[in-house]
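User: Quick sanity check before I run a bigger batch. Here is a single chain. Can you write out its predicted 3D structure?
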Amino acid sequence: MQPNPVPDPMIDGLALAVPAPGHNLPPAAFTSRDVFEVEQRAIFAKSWIHVCDLRDVPAPGSFMTAQIGRSPIIILRDRAGELRGFLNACRHRGAQLLDGSGTCDKQIKCPYHAWSYGLDGKLLGVPYRDEFDCNFDELRLVPVRVGVVGPMIFACIDPTAPAFETWVGGLAAYGTALEAMDFAWEKTYELEANWKIFVENANDGYHVQFVHDVLTDALVPDTDVTTLEPHSAYTFANINPAYLPPDKDPADAKIRFGHIFPNLIPVISPGDFTYIRVDPIAHDRLRLFVRSYDTPEAADFRELRKAAFEHTTKQDIAVVLRTMRGLYAEGLPAGVLASELEI
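Assistant: Done. Predicted structure follows.
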């Protein structure tokens, strides 16, 4: 007798099963609060997440706080200037230690009961120490894994997740060139949509010719080549020679659109680098954090690039919001996907 198959686990009426080839996730995957909460634990807490940039922690004592899933973290430079990451939680009662960004003098002090820690995470001070029956040497701040590529700092709270170099894939090869670029500008957007819709839109080449004008004009049609990696993907496309300086060889002028799972969208073109980080806030709300860097030779075109980015992003936001509204339609089945254009 054949055993009965084990049914797929369910969340909010949604079966946790890989969609059939050519099909998207069901609408509830984008509209359910319960699914969103599971994603914070099952996806973000097990991934390498971009949390800040080198410019945010420039010197010993500099710190930046961030969040991975529901876990608050700290990225800082210790007294020797080494990058470190810790859970942003006191080992006494779990109170959050730091807020925002700034500089620690020589220690981190909990605002609740004044426990203090060195910038290496070691527990230094405990008021009324004799009241406690514990091994204080074991009560260091919980470390977080840290990785750097170009100007970007990533962190991972899962000690069993793959190595950082494996996670970012081919992007690592650009690290030195990207780190040498200068900061150009940054922007933040907030919109009422599920984070996955924006990420899917960024990976969708199908919509470009119908939604975008500047982007369509800037690229040579049918020159895109996509590479899939275990935790990332990227697409190269040729740039329209009309957008290039006279001394630039069109054969070498390509733009690299990328995605580092789950929520980073890095775009590299000759002379500049821009990333979009899609921060999940709620099942129906996201924040886009955008930063751009460039070479001195490309600095004269900053305002033009920024204007083109704002124009293109406005078009993307419009279709993302339209999709989010449509996915609330009762009885709507899962959508279908193009075999290559929507990889």
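The domain at 49-160 is CATH 2.102.10.10 (Rieske Iron-sulfur Protein).

User: Great, the batch can go ahead then.
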